[in-house]
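INFO  loader      accepted 1 record
INFO  loader      residues=121
INFO  predictor   begin
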Amino acid sequence: VNDTTMFEAVLDDIPPVRTPPGQRRTRPGTVHADKAYDSAANRAYLRRRRIRPRIARRRVESSTRLGRHRWKIERSLSWLSCWRRLQVRWDRDCGRWFAFLLVACAMICFNRLSARFKTRA
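INFO  predictor   done
INFO  writer      dumping tokens
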């Protein structure tokens, strides 16, 4: 399924954001997206939910502003692509693939934290 058709479903599945005092927020403040999500329907959906859209325009070069936020996502995806089993999907069962994804994320976090503490010691 194309990502743009699932845009609303993904935003509806975001759990409430925990804030220290008061009630939980039920929506994110802003949504950062790339040019693939630039459509009038997506922008109208975000306006209805009172979410500020930060979507790159299709015919405008905007690599400087949104690139700062997208770089973190691209970097994280490149870390996950080092795991061959995640790159080439061997398992037919999505539960096993998701479990391996969680193990890979835990290993990446462990390696990053242990490297950070080694430099301080």
